[in-house]
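Narrative progress, year one. The postdoctoral researcher (J.K.) led the effort to move from monomer predictions toward full complexes, under supervision of the PI. The following entry was the first complex the group processed end to end, covering 741 residues in total.
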Amino acid sequence: MGIFRSGLSKTRQSFFGRITQMLGQSEIDEDTWDDVEAILIQADLGVATTQQVMDDLKTRVKREGITRTDQLQPVLKQILRELLDFPPPMNISGRPLSIILIVGVNGSGKTTSIAKLANRLNRAGRKVMLAAGDTFRAAAIEQLQTWGERVGVPVIAGKPGGDPAALVYDATASANARSNDILIIDTAGRLHTNYNLMEELAKIRSVSRKVIADAPHEVLLVLDGTTGQNALQQAQKFRELVDVTGVIVTKLDGTAKGGMVFAIFTELGLPVHYVGLGEKVDDLVLFNPDNFVDSLFDEN
Amino acid sequence: MFENLSERLQATFDRLGRAGKLTENDVDTAMREVRLALLEADVALPVVKNFVKRVKERAIGAEVTKSLKPGQQVVKIVHEELIETLGDPGRLSFSGSTKPHVIMLVGLQGSGKTTTAAKLAVHLRKEGRQPFLIAADTYRPAAVDQLVTLAKQINVPYHEEGTRSRPADICANGLKAAKDGGAAVAILDTAGRLQIDDTLMSELEEIKRRTNPAEILLVADSMTGQEAVHIAEGFNQRVGITGLILTKIDGDARGGAAISMREVTGVPIKFLGTAEKLDGFEVFHPDRLASRILGMGDVLTLIEKAEAAYDEQEALKLQKKLMENQFTLQDFLEQLQKIRKMGSFTQMLGMIPGMNRFKNDIDEEDVEKRLKRVEAIINSMTATERNNPKILNASRRQRIARGSGVEVRDVNDVLKQFRDMQKLMGQLRKGRMPRIPGMMR
């Protein structure tokens, strides 16, 4: 659990640290429900998911004859845990070259996440190559190159302002030639509402498909953990256009709660693969729903 | 999803079946909807609670104006309170500071500080003030390169020392360089950091001590959720922010974070980042943001326009006619003219929440032309024909077509539309919500 817990300790204190304080050991009354609801809302679970959890909690409390507030926590924890699941293993084995496409809105943490992911896979013995597909933002290529050097993986880059789809073509050829077995493609941040940029992303995807028939093998959406309800719209739109297969949630080392993960999994069925817990290259951990919910409930 | 608070509130009031003055009960019911709508828009819970309390005080006993339904009335109050909470657009203030004035940009990672620094420089130059950029983000790989690239692109002088110097030293040196270069305003691009990161927050304090900024602006992502209050409070407590810049407002987030941050800090919202291009930078308008947070497009403008176009008496007369099925072609013509008085069709469509996306599918000229043709056709009818379209036989239709310069089938189309509309009125009387035919074809 280690790093996952330490990174989430602040989240834990502000989230379920309070629930124990608030709920204490008394009879359940209207205030109790208001308190639980407040906690869920403030964790960015959103109105719909919160209502669903509240309804479920009330039903179970009634059914199980629970009357005291200190008995609520395990039930609430169970309900929240049942909404999540372990991610499936990523579909990046059993072929000469697997392609991972990384997408997301501006500033969500794509490039940093790619570096961390490359580092993980590299250390697991995979031969990773990166493609600097963000040809739009100033110095985005340099940013990825710097990371590449730090992590020790090659980076294929074109010119700033170049066609990212063409770069993907070159990078794939290059990865094959150098017998790399994983190619991670960085893309420029784009708001999901920008039609032209979303079309461009779809083009990048179809180009990779031309090179390898079933590519990209994973399309990971990088979501900023401080994002509120808009995260669901982002996930919907990106899934529609490029068939997102999973999510990386970043910036969960602060006080942000990351509660939108619930709706994204229950409503869109998109698994969370990794969680970003800091700026260092090791600060990317596999998502584990037990730990996620457990850490939230631990008191210290 | 709350597409439209106005509709939801109206549905609530319809259930209550009330009119006239708003009672405490009415308001309580409405406030539940308001609360949910604000939470859906990512306004932080404690802020929602205070806000709802204020709206409630204003709403109880408020006179319902003749032209507005109770639901619309509440929306109006909510909207007004929201605008007040968001406050006036804040202008940059350099009073009490000497040239070069310092603007320090702070915020979380990925909120858009570097892009904003360049946009701000462009904005200042447009105002006739010579800007200067200082690259103080030594942490994120290539952040310095990014600012330098942007500075060159917009042709603004800058200072950088790579990533080895301490950020506070870079800022102090940069300020000297700005002064020597005769710049009016120096913009400090600091590294993104969490407000709970003590070491990095101390660094900001040091930069502040050594550069004495006239403005410390918190750059925040408009998609931020409940966390907004903690971010704003954290930065404000440590460095004392003087204003907010909300970025990525060109997405479809409702932007409730703006109210949260404004409420807990009391500092004005100064600018909005509206696109990744360097001119995508706007002075903030509280009314637009308020409508957006409520998810109502510009429905208020629409309400105002409707208020202006209709007077109460006319509306009652029309309602009576509709109820008694005496709606004639003459009334049809008058309605058309009123709709045209309210503005262009696509413009109105854009104001209706959820309809914005159809805007591009509609050929405005075509719609205008069609409306004009309908007007001409009805104008070519006699008063008797308008009040009793049943007498319109083939020869009368031919005469009307000649009189209005159209084909007979155009006349038939209008008559068909009119019959559709009558049918629609019939459905309305029976309390069903019909589809509007004709217009969207």
